[in-house]
Amino acid sequence: MPTILSTLIHSGPVHVLAFATLLGSQFYQSFIGGVMAYKALPRPQFAQLQQRIFPVYFTLQAILPAVLLLTHPSMSPVSLINPSSPHFCNTGLPILIVLGASLANLVVISPATLKIGNERKVQETKEGKKYYDEGPKSEKMAALNKRFGVMHGASAFVNLIGLLATGWYGVILGNKIRW
Hints:
Elements: H1 4-8, H2 11-40, H3 43-71, H4 77-81, H5 88-127, H6 139-176
Helix pairs in contact: 2-3, 2-6, 3-5, 5-6
C-alpha cells in the first residue's frame, strides 16, 4: 500500500489538488468571502482588505493553471498548448483561458484599479469628502468613480470567465476519472 508522500510524487494527485484549490478559491472569493466582507465591513476597511487579498488571489490564480499544465498525468504541456494537438480544445484551452484571465487581472486590471482608487483618495483630500458620501459629486470624482466601476466590472467579468473555464476543465477532468 503506497504512503501519502509516495502518492504525491506522481503528477496525478498534485494535478487534482491544484485543480481543487483553483476552483475552491475562485468560488470562495467570488461568491462567499468577497460578498460577506462587502456586507460586513465599512467601505474603507473593505477596500483595504481587497487591496491585500487581490494580489495574493490573482497570483494564486496564475500559478495554479500553470501547475495544471505541468502536472497533467497523461499529456505533456507542449501537447496541451499546441493548437494543432487533439488535446488542445478539450484540455489545454480551458486551462489557458484561466491562466490568461488571471494574468490579465494580476498584471493589467488590478494595478489600473488600484491606481484609480489612489487617485480617488487624492481627490477626496482635495474635496474634503469621501467618494461614497451622499449628495452630488464633483465632475472629477464622478469620472473617477465611473472609471473605477468600469475597471472593477472588468475584473469581475474576467474572473467569472476564469471560473467558468475552470468549471469547463473540471467537467473534462471528471469525465476522465474511472472508478
